[in-house]
Write a structure and sequence with these properties.
Shape: elongated
Number of strands: 25
Strand order of the largest sheet: 8-9-11-14-12-10
Structural class: alpha/beta
């Protein structure tokens, strides 16, 4: 073997990667890699360059020998893909059976059908003062992206400027088309909006104002974004309200769904009601014909509910009547002497319910005491830990196959523990704050939202890089995707075990996130600030 100052040269490393060395020399190189960090980094770099070179050769139009670009044949499927498919299937089933299906069942009971909230919000019309500009920006970006993609795909077929001018003219014409008119009455209060008594809106009414008062009638849906909303008139459709204080004193023929700090109902709702509030008050005159769904801190329920009650409340007091079943979870439950519950009542909470002797219950309350903290005696807890490990391993497998060079670089950067943790602590908290500030402007949404998306992915992937580094420290260095997967699996298993420790687990998880995120920042900074490869040649 050729040595230079105790290290082998690049040609020896290339022959080792290609399997061209005889067994004796290959064993000698492998032993040397276990103790020499510079040579190990050279081998990693050569392996990465080989991947890049193969991708570059495959992308050219020239014919390439099949033996160069073809993947090596295997008699059986790779065990990594089999494990990834099994873990993904198990995770999807658990996600559906434990979260999605129960949520869809409760949403269906609460009156949500295909005409859901998102459809009403995004396809009915404008909702705040800057929506028109935001919609125009979104349409412009969509058309511009489509035009850029078409130009890139057809760049080799376009030999004349006439074709490019024709396509760009068509894009400009598409941008100049008139906007469709939304079938709704949109009002922007300056600063408040009032619908006087005796007036009627013949379509949906959408209001964005600081203070909103509806004394007239609405022959459609009422959608309001306001600090204060008072509805005294008759709403023949649904009410969707977002604000601080919402009070409904008039009849509603449809559903009522509010997201606010405080909510009060003093009228009849023909169908269903849902409230995400800090405090809710359903007085004696309130009526809900269907299901009542509550997510509230403190709630007084003295009216009449025709359907079921689904409540997640910190402090719930029932003094009215319930026509069907009640499913309640919260801190405290008080059933007053005038309360009537026709069906079954299931309550999960921190304290036993206080039931007045005068209350009329269809059956005794089924109480379940909620235990805080992790229950290590349940097998389901350990099954979830296996799924969490599998999810991390699956993402690591994809990253290792798609971008091996970047993966190995970040894993190697984890050995710089001090700088990695320091930069991770800084960017872990500074990045979302900066992105949210950017999102405050309409134009900044196109930048802030992708940053938040990639930030979430990077934080989740942080443990993968730390796990790969930890596995290499325990099993020793290796070359190739197979050994890297084994080290990744071991490292992630150890990190998952550390996360399961009581009290110390959350702190360890935070440190691991900062560690891996900081290593990612270091590699990105090095790659962005590195001069181009041809810079020195051109300067010469």
């Amino acid at each position: 073997m050729n040595h230079s100052d105790g290290h082998f040269d690049e040609m020896t490393g290339l022959l080792y990667l290609e399997g061209q060395l005889d067994p004796g020399r290959a064993s000698e190189v492998s032993a040397h890699l276990g103790s020499c960090v510079p040579c190990r980094e050279i081998v990693h770099a050569l392996e990465t360059e080989g991947v890049w070179l193969r991708e570059a050769l495959a992308a050219e139009d020239e014919s390439i020998p099949a033996r160069v670009i073809a993947a090596p044949e295997r008699g059986t499927a790779h065990w990594g893909w089999i494990a990834a498919f099994a873990l993904g299937t198990g995770g999807a089933y658990t996600l559906w059976s434990s979260f999605v299906e129960p949520w869809l069942t409760q949403a269906s009971q609460a009156g949500f059908t295909q005409g859901n909230l998102l459809t009403m919000l995004f396809f009915t019309g404008a909702f705040w003062k800057g929506w028109d500009a935001m919609r125009s920006l979104t349409e412009f970006m969509a058309v511009a992206t489509l035009g850029t993609l078409v130009i890139w795909l057809l760049r080799k077929q376009w030999q004349r400027f006439t074709a490019i001018a024709f396509v760009m003219g068509a894009l400009v014409g598409a941008l100049a088309l008139p906007q469709p008119v939304a079938a709704a009455d949109v009002q922007h209060g300056n600063p408040g909006y009032t619908l006087p008594a005796g007036q009627e809106v013949k379509t949906d009414l959408i209001v964005a104002a600081e203070r909103t008062r509806i004394d007239g009638d609405v022959d459609g849906d009422l959608i309001v974004f306001s600090d204060s909303l008072i509805v005294n008139g008759h709403v023949k459709g649904d009410i969707l309200a977002f604000g601080a204080e919402v009070r409904v004193n008039g009849p509603v023929d449809g559903n009522v769904r509010v997201w606010c700090q405080s909510f009060a109902l003093d009228s009849a709702v023909a169908r269903n009601a849902m409230a995400w509030t800090g405090a809710s008050d359903f007085n004696e005159k309130s009526r809900v014909g269907g299901t009542l769904t509550l997510f509230s801190g403190a709630t007084e329920l003295d009216g009449k509910i025709g359907g079921d009650l689904l409540a997640y409340a910190g402090d719930l007091s029932i003094g009215g009547s319930l026509g069907h079943d009640a499913a309640i979870r919260g801190g405290k439950l008080n059933v007053g002497p005038n309360a009537e519950i026709a069906g079954q009542t299931k309550y999960k909470g921190d304290h036993e319910p206080e039931v007045s002797p005068g209350a009329k219950l269809g059956s005794p309350i089924q109480f379940t005491l909620v235990k805080r903290g992790t229950d290590y005696t349940r097998g389901r807890y350990y099954w979830h830990q296996i799924l969490y490990w599998g999810a991390g391993f699956l993402l690591g497998l994809v990253m290792l196959l798609v971008m091996p060079g970047f993966f190995f670089d970040v894993a190697q950067a984890c050995k710089r523990v001090g700088p990695a943790v320091g930069f991770g602590a800084l960017f872990l908290f500074a990045t979302p704050i900066a992105a949210i500030i950017v999102c405050a402007t309409i134009v900044g949404l196109s930048v802030g939202l992708p940053v938040l998306l990639f930030y979430g992915i990077a934080v989740y992937a942080a443990k993968i890089f730390v796990g790969a580094w930890l596995g290499e420290q325990l099993l020793g260095p290796g070359v190739g995707v197979g050994p890297a997967l084994g080290r990744l699996a071991l490292g992630l298993a150890i990190l998952r075990g550390i996360r399961m420790l009581p009290y110390a687990g959350p702190l360890a998880g935070l440190i691991i996130a900062m560690w891996g995120f900081g290593a990612l920042v270091l590699v990105l900074h090095r790659r962005i600030s590195a001069p181009p490869a041809g810079g020195s040649l051109s300067a010469a």
